[in-house]
Amino acid sequence: MKLAYHVVDVFTTTPLEGNALAVFPDATDVDSATMQRIARELNLSETTFVLPAESSADGIRVRIFTPASELPFAGHPTIGTAYILRRLGIVPPEKQRFVLSENVGPVPIRVEAGDDPILWLTTPPIRKLGELGRERSARALSLTPDRLVPGVPCEILSAGNPIAFLAVRDGTAVDDARVDSALLIDLLRGTKNPVCMFVFAPTEGGAYSRMFAPLLGVPEDPATGSATGPLAAFMMKHGLVSSADATRFISEQGVKMGRRSLLHVLINGEHGKRAIEVGGNVVHVAEAAMHL
Fold this sequence. Notes:
CATH topology of the largest domain: Diaminopimelate Epimerase, Chain A, domain 1
Number of helices: 6
Order of helices and strands: EEHEEEHEEEEHEEHHEEEHEEEE
CATH class of the largest domain: Alpha Beta
CATH superfamily of the largest domain: Diaminopimelate Epimerase, Chain A, domain 1
Shape: globular
Distance between the termini: 5 Å
Helix content: 10-25%
Largest sheet: 18 strands, mixed
Radius of gyration: 18 Å
Structural class: alpha+beta
Number of domains: 2
Strand content: 35-45%
């Protein structure tokens, strides 16, 4: 079996920055176990597989895998896969709106026209799943509690993937974060699903952030689109960013890793009642084939 695939960097306009993604535009006859083994072989944050036979006018079927497991939804794989579908003409380049069918359900895509278009996804419904202790969460990231934003809890939100959000005072605290594996595992014991830890500092332009997902096989993620919609909801709830209609801001992530990523956020409706969109640019960096 010969499988063509592409590698793109998402949430950047600069090759070798942003978050790398492998996209298999035709994974017909590839079973789930092989998809997982391919994702482990490539060892990127995520790998996506497009399934033409399972696609329809209602959506193009896409499955998303980390090196360790399949995900119901993820942001940079959604944006990067949409880019490749347009690049290959599977979605006509002039088409400004289309839908990807992921395990979480239909994910609408919108193209913002321009020389280097931004692709936007509509974040699936966001739910609060619970809270973690602020001080224990800080210590699990090797931070002292005095570096947290006062009065803001550590909440677990999900738009498909459970993510714990921890607000710190400044970017230095974000850069100083380091996972203490024993403390993190103990903190997350008893949660229903593996929880990613997202630490961020509010900034004038939005947020400066990092995300750790060791339980998903991703020690640190350069750009986390599935966290960005919930991040916006969390920041609006706690008065860390404007909740007005048409508010637009940026979450800057991956800097500490040397893979700077810019994740655009657009609030539609007061407090995002109509939708929270997450967008970014994409750079094509490689085209290859895998022989199995």
